[in-house]
Amino acid sequence: MKPVIALVGRPNVGKSTLFNRMTKSRDAIVADFAGLTRDRHYGNGRQGRREYIVIDTGGFEPDAGDGSIFREMARQTQQAVAEADVVLFIVDARAGLSAQDHDIANYLRRLGKTSILVANKAEGMKEGQQLVDFYELGLGEVYPVSAAHGQGIRSLVDFALDSIGIPEPDDDLPTEDEGIIKLAVAGRPNVGKSTLINTWLGEERLVAFDLPGTTRDAISVPFERNGQKFELIDTAGLRRKGKVFEAIEKFSVVKTLQAIESANVVLLLLDATQGVTDQDAHIAGFILETGRAVVVAINKWDAVDEYQRELVLRSVETRLAFLKFAALHYISAKKRQGLGPVWQSIIQAHAAANIKMSTPMLTRLLHEAVQFQAPKRSGMFRPKLRYAHQGGMNPPVVVVHGNSLEHVTDAYKRYLEGRLRKQFNLIGTPLRIEMKTSHNPYKDKE
To answer: Which of 125, 276, 293, 332 has its CA 20 to 30 A from that of 33?
Structure first.
């Protein structure tokens, strides 16, 4: 088991910057903005041959009042501390000691968890006088670092791993990513994405709050169901561009789009109480453009009457007509209704996206399709489809070879797509058909 290191501290002390340094990534959004990180954010790090897991947390306020989002963030941090083998308590060397630092230190001392006091933003500062005040916290030695400049990070990680007795391994560990399905949950703000993932996990792993835009980063959570490993990715809700006012939220949109691109399957979550909006159609269009396998689920189905349900289904048929190949489910994340069939569709969509189609089978189907309905003649010539083979997976790509294929209409391509989908049961994945015309060796000769 990899050791777990949790980063804890008040807002804007540089926890996410340190997280990115320790994971050698840019997975956590970083900005000069207090309260940006709200959920627990996991990442893998490696120093030498020692691997570890880092947990980035939101600004910690142990005594935050009930009902506020700060209380929800505090619960996330408390859970991260409970999961960790060692806690790095981050303070701001330039801002100095604060009452909130005392509260966090008291909380960590009561738990008895192995804790290391880290003074961030210490670049250019002489050790000694500026750090003396932090010894009041009673957590032992203060380790000055600069996450932004990378100073002292390597020795800090070594000390953290040594403090919990993690030896240098003899051999490199094998990778664990094989066979894992990356599932991104995407949709507009406040449709219930975090609530759905929390329901699946059986714990309040993500901050679920009745406030659009609560999730600001793409949060990844490992999960296993019936022996199949998943990586659940909760994305920030995508608003219309005109509604994105904060620069932080613009970064969140980028992270969401990156999460969709890196996923194997995307669960597009809709809100039954609001129907299918233009923004839902934009998100669906981006999923289709990236070629991701997709499953559509309408959340809050229990909160609407029969008339509203009929309106929602009509809007799905009209505005999401280009996703007819995707399975559609009606669920209630809060009441755990209809979630079982969603998993079956996710597995089916992933299998369809990675299907292998043999060249003889594709060529035979192509000839049968042409025999049943030939492509339209264009002038003196009729396109001649000779053979087909698979050109890629996730999404599946079928390459058709022949003569005068530039005259094949989009309607005929949709006809071929329909026959291929029926034969190979391609539910939940886009299918791309490419036409390659053979070169005429006599074209340029007199």
So the answer is: 125
Show the DSSP H helices in 40-88 as ranges: 69-83
Do the annotations mark residue 57 as ligand-binding? yes
Q: Which CATH number belongs to the domain containing residue 118 in this structure?
A: 3.40.50.300
Is residue 413 annotated as involved in ligand binding? no
Q: Per-residue pLDDT for 115 more than 70? A: yes
Annotated ligand binding at 343? The verdict is: no
Count of structural domains within the chain: 3
pLDDT of residue 128: 58
418 marked as part of a ligand binding site: no
The 8-class DSSP code of residue 210 comes to S
Tell me the DSSP string of 1-39.
---EEEEE-STTSSHHHHHHHHHTS--S---S-TT---S
Do 124 and 226 fall within a single domain? no
Range of the domain at 416: 359-437
Q: Are residues 379 and 348 in the same domain?
A: no
299 is in an annotated binding site: yes
Spatial distance between the Cα atoms of 360 and 374, rounded to a whole number of angstroms: 20
Among 328, 353, 378, the domain boundary falls at 353
Verdict on whether the full-model pTM lies above 0.90: no
Residue 301 annotated as lining a ligand binding site: yes
Last residue of a domain, one of 163, 198, 232: 163
Do 14 and 90 belong together in one domain? yes
Residues 153 and 77 in one domain: yes
The Cα–Cα gap between 139 and 114 comes to 10
Same domain, yes or no: 348 and 364: no
Using one digit for the tens of pLDDT, what is the confidence trace for 294-333? 999 999 999 999 999 999 999 999 999 999 999 999 999 8
Lowest mean pLDDT among 141-150, 166-175, 390-399: 166-175
Does the annotation flag 425 for ligand binding? Answer: no
Binding residue per annotation — 300? yes
What sign for the dihedral angle of Cα 414, 416, 420, 423? positive
